[in-house]
Input
Amino acid sequence: MKIHDSFWSGYLRLIKGTVLPFQWSALNDEEGIRVEIENSDAPIPTEKSHAIANLKIAAGLASGTHQGYWFQDTDVYKWLEGVGHILNHFPDKELETLADEAIDLIEAAMEPDGYLNTFYQLRTPELKFKQLHLSHEMYCCGHLIEAAVAYYTATGKDKILRLACKFADCIDQNFGPEEHKRHGTDGHQEIEPALVKLYQLTGEEKYLKLAGYLLDVRGPDCFDFESFYTPKYLQAYARPKEQETAEGHAVRMMYMLTGMAETALHTGDGEMLAACHRIWENITTRRMYITGGIGSTNIGEAFTFDYDLPNDTMYCETCASIGLIYFARAMLNHEQDSRYADVMERALYNNALAGMGRDGKQYFYVNPLESFPAANQNSPNRGHVKSTRPDWFGCACCPPNLARTVSSIEKYMTSIAGGEYYTHLYIGYESEVSLGESSLTLRQEIAFDHRLDVTFTVDAKQPAGAVFNFRIPGWSRSFEACVNGKKLDNPQISHGYLKISKVWSGSETVTITFDAPVLQVSAHPFVRADAGKVAIQKGPFVYCLEEADNGDNLHLVRLTPETVFTETRPNPLYPPTLVCNGERLEVGGEWEGKLYACGQTPRYRPARLTFVPYYSWANRGVGEMLVWVSKR
Amino acid sequence: MKIHDSFWSGYLRLIKGTVLPFQWSALNDEEGIRVEIENSDAPIPTEKSHAIANLKIAAGLASGTHQGYWFQDTDVYKWLEGVGHILNHFPDKELETLADEAIDLIEAAMEPDGYLNTFYQLRTPELKFKQLHLSHEMYCCGHLIEAAVAYYTATGKDKILRLACKFADCIDQNFGPEEHKRHGTDGHQEIEPALVKLYQLTGEEKYLKLAGYLLDVRGPDCFDFESFYTPKYLQAYARPKEQETAEGHAVRMMYMLTGMAETALHTGDGEMLAACHRIWENITTRRMYITGGIGSTNIGEAFTFDYDLPNDTMYCETCASIGLIYFARAMLNHEQDSRYADVMERALYNNALAGMGRDGKQYFYVNPLESFPAANQNSPNRGHVKSTRPDWFGCACCPPNLARTVSSIEKYMTSIAGGEYYTHLYIGYESEVSLGESSLTLRQEIAFDHRLDVTFTVDAKQPAGAVFNFRIPGWSRSFEACVNGKKLDNPQISHGYLKISKVWSGSETVTITFDAPVLQVSAHPFVRADAGKVAIQKGPFVYCLEEADNGDNLHLVRLTPETVFTETRPNPLYPPTLVCNGERLEVGGEWEGKLYACGQTPRYRPARLTFVPYYSWANRGVGEMLVWVSKR
Output
């Protein structure tokens, strides 16, 4: 699939030309990269990545000792996965050479039995597989597998795939229900969905079986819980199949759910799928921010409880939204329903994309819905919220996670299920597909302005019956669809998709126009943080106010029933900027020297307000930002 | 002074009959007391007080080792101070006997050189005076001094005074500017104001000098700062005289300011007093809750920054408000201005009193302005907020601090300055005073209902000139004053006090009626947490909504411009309950299964709302509470 899209092609070029080279520099501790630990109580503050250095030392190619977290290796694996994905879009000899070097290093660092975790190898080999609640050993294996699947698929080079299989086999030989094996799983889920991918690629049943085992063994008897590592934090307060709600560390929860959904796709485990459905409902109707962010508290980077969605103390980790995208995508394999794609799109275009700066060299770990630099700096409760994106982190999971996700955008755009073709995200592309017995060339062109115009062309060399389903986005109120210029008067709609079923012959064109109004969205009244407020959304983009456009004290601003939005487009590659008439509370002399007072008459003056897409915030220096805005 | 007051006499009886006996039980680890650690990361969780046991062990009268914090001794000292104060109001042989027992224990536990800190004596004697940033050794000495001054003053028994002087002399011999002494001060201020009291009682200049030294030596070079114990936390980022704002641990800040104001009163140190003025302004116009609570964050129990007053994650420790009362009282010694007394009253009648349950056996450490039990239980960011008062704490500073403060209420009510008499708080009493050369009998009677009626009678055996100043409370909009029934047409007002200067002869009566309307108070617009909200206040009392009266989801409730309050009085001893017409947002079926939606029309239905005084909340089981209420 070739992406030709005004918005996404730029991202892919950025990943290739800037993001991956920059991240390679970071992984190699090159100069001039500002590393920030993600929160002040991080157990291992690191001033540099040291990820490649760790591998070199473990391989005996350099001296020194391990630095960083016990999962530092995964930064390299995720980068490799990103390289694999981007090579599907662009040939790039330089990146491929770097990747091959890294793979050689991995080979050299790997132990004869397939074990690889430079922290345990270099620091505490006696504790290998003995601290499962914290060790991340399988988590590391999972990321190596995902890198291998991506890199092998893109290049056909199988060295990394052999290494990943060897590591997976090492896990398989050590863990399982058999009496002679260890019984347990990793504190940080990730290997489960990875093993399913490895099964899909290799056809080896043992990997699917291992994924199922690791999901089933999790539970109250599975870990040595201690202080921070509580049963909820680790999603181990009940067996995964029995869980009802999203609890604990949000990224782990997402990776587990993705693994459950992907495993159940192959095993047909109904209980496992039912749990996915229950928890999906819990997240998306009670515990998800409008930006697709999840994790309401920084303490444990975790879910809290229903409708608890504070905008200023939340976590909303970039990786957690990426995990939600994966989970949504996995659910779409089970059930082609637009509610999954709606959430996938929400998380992708907002919380996830906000994780990277426009220059591709700066990243957010935490994605607030309200940023007040004075508070970020002076209130310890908000110390984890950064006002601008750091270059890199002591715990640098997010930057390469973004690289691997954005570089594989095509995996989220479409799917084939039950012999039918589904369009989930509206992104321009061209591809050849086999649908049933037909081979078709598809081309999708997108124009997003006051509305979303989709032009979908099917080229069939020979007449061929095929069913195309187009998602009707949740943010669109109406649409009009034509086939070869002829309007569909009674469009067939199924589970939120417009279904077009016909025999295609020669070049035929479907055009769909979705209206994309500026929406003033309210949150459920039980969401206390958003009471009396609205968020602005247009198309997939949630908007925000920034100080750069609107001055400071953004909480003094409000919309009114008379507020009308107009759209401007400073850059045709980006979504529009929204401008509206609102009001701003004047803070007059009557408050001089007073903190509390009676009978002060609030005076509002008209104010022109400018909203920009949330994903683009914090690209213009330090300043306030606000998603949920008061409304009279 | 004899208190005869419908509100406060009940409190004094409660302190004598219940609070002090209960606290003695707690200090002696008697059965059935539910001890709660104040937050989950407390370094020393204790399941019992062990405070008396520690003294017994240090005295060689029991075996075992120290349990609890390194300042556990102060719980006994503060209790002793409370006993001293209450004996001014009521003779009580039983309490006095218990107190004498405790004093004997203190004597037995004290080392020959006067040193006393059971933690260091029993656990790490080699670290005595070597961990000043955390040790609390002088803090303990300060509380012993305050207990001694109170108990000696009430009973004339001087054993505890001798012990306190001995401990103070031990500090004096070890610390000071002289070369042979240690240079430094305690991490936790408290000894400074205590030493001034000891100076006032004994006339020994050395204690005043030591107070001054300990205040002046504080600064960036004073401590071994480490992790938690930062320069700001310890108010040591600058010399106290140079500080501009309230920073760090709120209780420490208050005790330091009290010490500075009290020291400056005697030394005339203008720089020190100027710092007190600056920081007073900073606190009361930028960093104080409407309840008189201070400390906007639980992390470090600390101040944060201007206008940062979150209602749900704050700390507002009971002890911090008590400290603010002390600081305000000390400032009144310098300057008879009602703004100090207004704040003193606010902190006393709201945050401080809320620290104790109606039964006198349950206490809050943290005093939120918004309590949502689900959040207190499920959000780690609010785990420090308790939905109901525990019986006791691992760190139990607050309960005996309340006991010593409430039992000495008369110290805050009136003062004499420049030969004039000042009434700061309106509480009923009778006393004999010497004013200049006159000896007068004063009687004040109070009726608080729709208004505050003060009847102040002066009995002068012989005609005597005297000036009486009556505070005009900030919450009153108008007043009428009469002398012997004759209205004052041009009352003389000075710095917020009504001044009545005349020759008094026989029995003469001043009557003042202050109106006490129900106020809808707004916060400065920069206080983000209170935007669009009002707090209800009547007289000195801030009010709140409780679930017991108004159902749950209190955030759905709002006042309107048509809201009118009526007052009811279920119990004549307590302030009125306020009832008004408001509105409640209906959460209808249109939200079923939705978290975000557009075009939902909010429907409000009329709702009768009941407000109760904030100090009385959480006496009726677990439920929501809200001070700042939305207003249309």
Summary: The mean pLDDT of chain B is 96.
